[in-house]
Design a protein that fits this description.
The structure is a homodimer of 352-residue chains.
Chain A lengths: L17 H8 L3 H9 L6 H14 L5 H8 L4 E6 L5 H16 L3 E6 L4 H13 L4 E4 L8 H8 L4 E4 L9 E5 L1 H14 L5 E5 L5 H16 L9 E3 L4 H13 L6 E4 L2 H13 L9 E5 L13 E4 L2 H17 L7 E4 L2 E3 L13
Parallel strand pairs in A: 1-2, 1-3, 3-4, 4-5, 5-11, 6-7, 6-8, 8-9, 9-10
Antiparallel strand pairs in A: 10-12
Helix pairs in contact in A: 1-2, 1-3, 5-12, 6-7, 8-9, 10-11
Chain A binds a DNA duplex (16 and 16 nucleotides) through helix 2 and helix 4.
DNA sequence: CTGAAAGCGCTTACAG
DNA sequence: CTGAAAGCGCTTACAG
């Protein structure tokens, strides 16, 4: 009658419980629990017996029971727009590494930038009694969904996008500075007509990145040409359409800056289909370094974000806040940097 | 004293329980539970009162308690090599859609093709008392880790790679046929020296795909040249090295077939760095259609797998097995198909 | 150092 | 149709 008996279906699981272990070790369940917790206070003899019993019975504590009893789930909810986007996958993986180390389970949800979906996941998080939530808001200023979490006293860390006026720890990159520098770089290469494919006004990173672009032009006295600023909605399709529209202009841009990786994918699609020569006809700077950035012809110059650090810091902020719920709110801003490749002229001059 | 009181830290959560609801609605907790379950057997008057109370108190059942009581977690563990790989991200997303619909929670683990990591995640799954596990084995023939799940009576569905002789439902693609057809295609274009970058012998898909390649050559009486078959370990770095080695050969291949997307990324890296002309110097067929396949120059011909269907079918098989634990074991094989683009000559002739 | 007992929030026989 | 009560597996005061 060892473990492994009763295999007919799931109705009768081989539940080995503390009771079984206690019986086998001839101690109380309290003692088993004490050994398990590792906090000491158990004589080495009893500890021995308990450990043997645990091994022999292949005992594994039931997490649901633990959660119910301890009133803490040790689960962190993580909400991102779409795990299929490499940028977010990379962040999630590094969050997971840190939280797992600390004994937390990770519950992942994709919002697809929909408030409705965001809300549903938050309801799930609440039902699961998550210990905290690390999130990228679907819509930056609309924080209704997160107010429910706040009211329930759930610690939150916002990453990538800023969540309106919600007072929570945040980890972001210096978005405005990143596009400002990239634009200045393009100007320094002699470009004056710089196309810009931007994201939704409802997302803080999109607003900041566009501000950086506009600021650079203004700084150097280049008038803003609204026809050069196209909305790409942070999507592949949007990027494609935006590039198409830019290319329709009588006066085409000689350079292009894009505000995220999905739009880059779409714009490059149009460029490829129409056999537009890069950087001869147009210089390009993308946002986010992707595994495929270096296999384009020419390889793509990009603004790259430190995804691993974003994830690690977010997870660490979460752990810190769980320990010190009332410590002051922290805002971390990480620098991006440019990786110069051949899709822009770099330090060379414009042709002719 | 509405919900939202007691906000100082997490020690005192606003736990609204069935008891509170029952008290407010002036019924027993049993009645509240019955309303919640929706199985009927409650007078409409009481149901009304209960529903109002639930709304007013913003009551949400505690999942940990439910799990403990019902002896079923309604959690499905999902194990993939790496969610950062688009192929797996896409499958996971479609699994999630189906399982969420059915009221299951998804617990995700990345194995990074390590047996140790695989084992750890499985221990977690067991502790969480998962209802089932959908997995891609890290090492196809080594099924020790999964035996623990089987012995615990946990239903399993294997996807992508076959798990040795473990008797579980599987969803895979016709791997051998896919590379066989691709190779035949290249031969029909006039190629005789076709390079092949393959995966680890420990992974079933790699073995099958290589078999397809070899079979095609044999079928048409083209002798196998071992120097044309390079191991790429299913990694980016491996793909790069394999391509480098192929290009070192005195007699270079005129075409190239690769067994997965990571290796494609690596090989394309070498091709790009060395400015190798595609398809003039070498025709290329990759495995898996990626978002970036069409922005390469030239766009990449690929063997594409139906990721969404793989995920949906895996999830449906799981739900079916949860309902009918003893139904006969099913093996589903999905066809791949080739997407012809300009990286191989397609129906044109070889130059000269 | 150790154990008997209470209780976390829920659902489901069991009685009526 | 409804409620009182038991119990899922665990941990932690409370006594000793």
């Amino acid at each position: 009658m060892g473990p492994g008996r009763m295999q007919q279906g799931r109705l009768f699981e081989n539940v080995v419980t503390v009771k079984d272990v206690a019986a086998k070790a001839d101690v109380s369940t309290a003692t088993v629990s004490r050994v398990l917790s590792g906090k000491g206070g158990v004589s080495s003899e009893l500890e021995q017996r308990v450990r043997s019993a645990i091994d022999e019975l292949d005992y594994r504590p039931n997490q649901a029971a633990r959660r119910l009893r301890e009133r803490t789930a040790k689960i962190i909810g993580v909400l991102v727009p779409d795990i299929q986007i490499h940028f977010f996958a990379s962040i999630v993986v590094s969050i997971e590494r840190v939280l797992q180390e600390a004994g937390y389970l990770l519950l992942l949800g994709n919002t697809y930038d929909s408030l409705e979906s965001e809300k549903q996941h938050i309801e799930t998080f609440l039902s699961e009694d998550v210990s905290g939530v690390i999130f990228t808001p679907a819509v930056s200023p609309d924080i209704q969904n997160f107010k429910r979490l706040r009211d329930a006293g759930v610690p939150m860390i916002a990453i990538d996008r800023l969540p309106g006026d919600l007072r929570v720890d945040t980890v972001q990159v210096s978005n405005e500075k990143s596009t400002l520098n990239a634009t200045l770089h393009l100007i320094s290469e002699g470009h004056h007509r710089i196309g810009y494919i931007g994201g939704p006004k409802s997302i803080s990173t999109a607003v900041d990145r566009q501000a950086g672009y506009e600021c650079a032009l203004t700084q150097l006295g280049i008038p803003l040409d609204q026809s050069l600023i196209q909305p790409g909605g942070y999507t592949i399709e949007g990027g494609y359409r935006a590039m198409r529209d830019l290319w329709k202009l009588n006066q085409r841009p000689t350079a292009l800056l894009m505000a995220n990786n999905s739009m880059t994918l779409g714009a490059m699609q149009f460029i490829c289909e129409n056999d537009i020569s890069v950087p001869d006809q147009i210089s390009i700077i993308g946002f986010d370094d992707m595994p495929w950035s270096t296999i384009l012809r020419p390889p793509l110059t990009v603004i790259t974000q430190p995804t691993t650090e974003i994830g690690v810091l977010a997870a660490q902020l979460m752990l810190a806040r769980l320990n010190e719920p009332n410590s002051s709110i922290k805002h971390i801003t990480l620098e991006t940097h440019m990786v110069l490749r051949q899709s822009c002229l770099c330090s060379k001059k414009l042709p002719e």
